[in-house]
Specification:
InterPro entries: His_Pase_superF_clade-1, His_PPase_superfam. By secondary structure, the protein is of the alpha/beta class. The chain is about 35% helix and about 20% strand. The protein has one domain: Rossmann fold (3-Layer(aba) Sandwich). Strand 2, helix 2 and strand 3 form a beta-alpha-beta unit. It is globular and about 40 Å long.
Length: about 150
Amino acid sequence: MHLIVMRHGEAGWHTLDQERELTEAGRRGVAAVAAQIADSPWRPSLIWSSPYVRARQTAAIVAEVLNCPVEEKDFITPDDDPGRCLDELLSNTLSPLMLVSHMPFVGALSTLMVDGHRLGIPFMTSQAVLLDMPVVGPGCADLKAQFLP
């Protein structure tokens, strides 16, 4: 399975974290990364998005560039347990699959898949990584590619 893990684009300020929207710079960064993914051999079949506004906006931009459907998932918000996402990935049959979420979740999930722990690698806004997993499980992935804004 190939999994693309992407952090949302740069977002502005809002009193409610869930309502933060992308800035213009954030939109440009997301579009740049989406174009790189479009030119890669790993175009996703589906995008899973956090329900937070900035992640939904990021997923919408990527979906438009890649002509790909988006599904909101309530288990990939910033402080969710990456183990729950791992459980969902085990029943997923689509590959490549893309996931758009937040820090610290994207870092914790990526580290869990590559190194088997949840310490979390850093992600800049709009950054995406490609994980190659012959088997879905902790420590079973290889980091194959990075897409940077």
